[in-house]
Amino acid sequence: MSSSSSLSFNTTNDITNDTIMVAALPGRMGNLTPEQTAQLKDMWAHLMAAIGALDDENLKEVTRAVQEMDFEAGKVAAAKHGTPIDDVSALDLAAFAEVRKTMSIEQLRLAFWDMVHGDSPDNLLLRFLRARKWDVGKALAMMARTFHWRVFDGKVAETELWGEAGALRDGDDEFLLQFRSKKCFIHGNDKEGRPVVHARPVNHNPKLQTQETIEKFTVHVCETTRLMLHEPVDSATVVFDMKGFGLSNMDYNAVKFVIQCFEAHYPECLGVLLVHRAPWVFSGIWKIIKPWLDPVIAKKIHFTSNTKDVEKFIDISNIPKDMGGTDPYQYVYVEPKEGEAAKTEDSETRKKLENDRLKLYEEMEQNTVAWIKAVTPEEEKQVLADRKVVTQKLRSQWWDLDPYQRAPSILDRIGDIKYE
């Protein structure tokens, strides 16, 4: 790298199994190229500056150091990954800044940490980077829009605090119908260990609920599925079993929202999507839907017509019997019970745990700034060792807080979600 910068980066990939939680797949912590490590640090620097944890001068220094890095394979992956980092596009940074104007610094900060949940914060940022082909500016803009959506439009935290128990308490049969109708449930795993979301469109009547309810249910399914992800598994498989599907089941607005979630708000959470036993009438519908899809999402969609096709992705023992497999499981909705969400009403304990968590956020932010600014391999190794400890504390403490922020789901009631 150029000697003109006062900040330097260790360009070896020292983020190994011994230093931090690791995933085997490329583009995750533990399997990053030097270019990707630099891009992750650059994205962290912009986020830390946005929430007030890094001053502007240090941000400029980090960005300048990344721009000036030379790698054996070429300069900062300009050819491989599209936009060079020194062009972290003014338009994309402007889009990031525009969203920031709609949120206070504290709202932005808490929106980020709320989305982390029990995940690795690094791997959350890497989801956005992979989704935007390692273009830091575009990843930042996408992430900021997601934060805004989670707080103001999706109202994710509110929905999960309310949950199925809230629907029972408030007499919201329309929301509970989404579960009772058996149109969607989470069960089993595919060959990669990914949780499987089963969708049965034949059980969906577009006239029986509002778009608002559909969106609330979709968010709930997405958030519940995230609870089933454990590194190195970081995505889910979705199976649309189209048996019995007819035009009366088609809901274009619901499809558009699901696509929006996959593409814009839950990046890199979809592993594979199977469209199984689609009837001839679906061919015309597919011609309408396909242009809506981002090419990356479209490549993950596979049409299957028989059990052998599905077996390429899911072992026969995990394929339901009604799809030709040997899994005897039949989804039956276990209703929420009065009092099961009592902890969500214990505001005193929740506040104490939230304050404990705020201290961990600050600790992680300080470690992040130290990692960004680390100069020597030895310094970075120590910072990453500390980072592993803080990341594990964040995950453990999140599970302590979870029952005070989230009403139990059916997966809690049947024992599929286990507190760690």
UniProtKB/TrEMBL annotation:
Transmembrane segments: none annotated. Pfam families: CRAL_TRIO, CRAL_TRIO_N. Signal peptide: none annotated. InterPro entries: CRAL-TRIO_dom, CRAL-TRIO_dom_sf, CRAL/TRIO_N_dom, CRAL/TRIO_N_dom_sf, PITP/CRAL-TRIO. Gene3D superfamilies: CRAL-TRIO lipid binding domain. Residues 186-331 form the CRAL-TRIO domain. Coiled coil: none annotated. This is CRAL-TRIO domain-containing protein. It comes from Yarrowia lipolytica.
